[in-house]
């Protein structure tokens, strides 16, 4: 199955008290399909985080559409959207967002844990691929920064989502760990996934096949 995400003419403004609204997205279009590895670049405040949150349906756009694998997110109720997002989109952040009191393997299969379902074996296989087999029972606080990001990536891959939205995924990593994470993201796209990555990191930009620059909520040259 091919995967796709399409953002059509998306606009989003933030209204601050007694101030003129900030237009974070201004009729922005973006189209990505299986195999695409896209880096989104741009100065602080240009709307990159707003784009990522909107792309995953965590934030509603004021106008325009976000269509993932043919599904217009605005047509879903909030619970349907949460379910759809869990199946189709995974986030990887600069700060990892691991749950501190769960061990590594439970962090990886967190989405299934509450349901009492999921496969420990599948989680173990992914951890092994990232060189974390020996760390499965450790808490995040017992891991290095690079290992924590590999756990976050394992969680994204375990989820089965074919779209990864990554926000500065290498921001805290040394070159060896950055390389591991970027290679894994590239492999993910080569296996039919889509990666949209916000980054200021030249190492990460070099990995992306497509680079898009943003300025004031729009694409710039
Ligand atoms: N909740 C909010 N309320 C008001 N204004 C906001 C809110 N979130 C973001 N903004 C404003 O919208 C604009 C775009 O913000 P956004 O976080 O998307 O930019 P960014 O490119 O991700 O920035 P950075 O690189 O610094 O993270 C900025 O001017 C920001 O101040």
From TrEMBL:
One GO cellular-component annotation of the UniProt record comes to:
plasma membrane
Alphabetically list the UniProt keywords: ATP-binding, Nucleotide-binding, Transport
Pfam families in alphabetical order: ABC_tran (PF00005)
What residues does the ABC transporter domain cover? 5-221
Q: A Gene Ontology MF term for this entry?
A: ATP hydrolysis activity
CDD domains per record: ABC_MJ0796_LolCDE_FtsE
Give the matching InterPro entries.
AAA+_ATPase, ABC_transporter-like_ATP-bd, ABC_transporter-like_CS, ABC_transpr_LolD-like, MacB-like_ATP-bd, P-loop_NTPase
Write down what this protein is called. Answer: ABC transporter, ATPase subunit
């Amino acid at each position: 199955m091919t995967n796709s995400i399409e953002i059509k003419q998306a606009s989003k403004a933030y209204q601050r008290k007694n101030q003129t609204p900030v237009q974070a997205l201004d009729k922005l279009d973006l189209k990505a399909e299986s195999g695409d590895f896209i880096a989104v670049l741009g100065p602080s405040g240009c709307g990159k985080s707003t784009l990522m949150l909107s792309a995953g349906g965590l934030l509603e756009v004021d106008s325009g559409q976000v269509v993932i694998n043919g599904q217009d997110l605005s047509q879903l109720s909030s619970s349907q959207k949460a379910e759809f997002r869990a199946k189709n989109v995974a986030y990887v952040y600069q700060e990892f967002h691991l749950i501190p009191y769960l061990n590594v393997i439970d962090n990886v299969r967190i989405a299934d844990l509450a349901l009492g379902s999921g496969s420990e074996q599948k989680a173990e296989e992914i951890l092994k691929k990232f060189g974390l087999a020996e760390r499965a029972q450790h808490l995040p606080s017992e891991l290095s920064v690079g290992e924590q990001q590999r756990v976050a990536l394992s969680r994204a891959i375990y989820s089965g989502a074919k779209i990864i939205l990554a926000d500065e995924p290498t921001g805290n990593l040394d070159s060896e760990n950055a390389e591991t994470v970027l290679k894994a993201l590239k492999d993910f796209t080569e296996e039919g996934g889509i990666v949209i990555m916000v980054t200021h990191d030249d190492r990460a930009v070099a990995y992306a096949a497509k680079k898009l620059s943003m300025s004031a909520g729009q694409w710039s040259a």
